[in-house]
Known about the structure:
Blueprint (H helix, E strand, L loop, with lengths): L9 H4 L10 H8 L5 E3 L10 H8 L15 H11 L6 E4 L1 H13 L5 E5 L5 H7 L4 E5 L8 H7 L4 E7 L11 H11 L4 E5 L14 H7 L3 E6 L12 E4 L2 H8 L9 H10 L4 H24 L4 E2 L5 E5 L4 H9 L3 E5 L8 E5 L3 H16 L2
Parallel strand pairs: 1-11, 3-4, 3-5, 5-6, 6-7
Antiparallel strand pairs: 2-8, 7-8, 9-10, 10-12, 11-12
Helix pairs in contact: 3-11, 4-11, 5-6
Amino acid sequence: xxxxxxxxxxxxxxxxxxxxxxPDAVLMGQYGVSRLYRLNNNENALGPPPAAREAIAAxxxxxxxxxxxxxAYALRQALATRFGKDPDQFLVGNGSCxxxxxxIRAFCQQGDAIVTTxxxxxxxxxxxxxxxxxxxxxxxxxxxxxxSAMLAAVTDATKVVFICNPNNxxxxxxxxxxxxxxxEGLAGRAVVVLDEAYREFVDDAxxxxxxxxxxxxxxxxxxxxxxxxxxxxxxxxxxxxxxREAVDIVRRTHIVYSxxxxxxxxxxxxxxxxxxxxxxxxxxxxxxxxxxxxxFDALGLEHVSGAGNFIMAxxxxxxxxxxxxxxxxxxxxxxxxxxxxxxxxxxxxxxEEAMAAFAKALRQTLDKx
Length: 369
């Protein structure tokens, strides 16, 4: 009789599954702490904008028995109004991870390849790997995406190029001119995904706006999310925007009804009068960034940060060991070995109380090392 494993493609057998962290209550019991500062997932410590909070609080429980809009109709209308585009240019997914999968399924088959970098958001590589698609990984240069090297990595087999701008986890980003030269050099030989998950954290005239870039380059798709700036990570809402032709192709591979009703309502509300929320979040991040840079400098630790609500630092001990020791102080950080940054940690910018708790725990932990 055929064994179950014999039915599994080699590229699935060889893929190592991701193991999420346990629930906070379980972790607090495991490490013996009564309070846990979550500084590992780049969540917004301010939570959702006021209008989204109100929408969540007003959600009627009986609505849970009703299927949501299968294509996030109202949210796509709101996005179209915000960005001056056609609603059919938007595709909403269960977080940007689902949209990544839809794009790879739409444009790639076995034997094809994607191009991205070796130290960036890992889901591009993961989805390609367990789909039987080659992921060509280009090394960073000075902690930034190397445009010329990425361009050189594109071959006839390349169907999609993923550009995380700003890059997670280094915070580096391409200026307008760099992106434009890259797109001109690519000359439409592959679909280009601009993942702008952290775009709202950038306030710089030199940052290229993907929503404008895609109008001049029809092969460009733009990813954005409500998980980071808008504080709706628990409701899982991300989206892509592109030409109607490109979005129609991706829609063919996309699962309808994948975005829950509350998530759609909260995301739609989050777009209302969000300027104050964005400004407050940027202010919190800027203060935390200054504080953490000073902490790392005082400890003589190399650190890297740019755009986004996170900072990386190189530790003199194993990142996984440091994680466990910090957890005993009720502080949770992201270990970076999985990002190919061994002995580095990534810390999410948060409120003053959380930053002070991290700094105290780090000092105490390193003093005992």
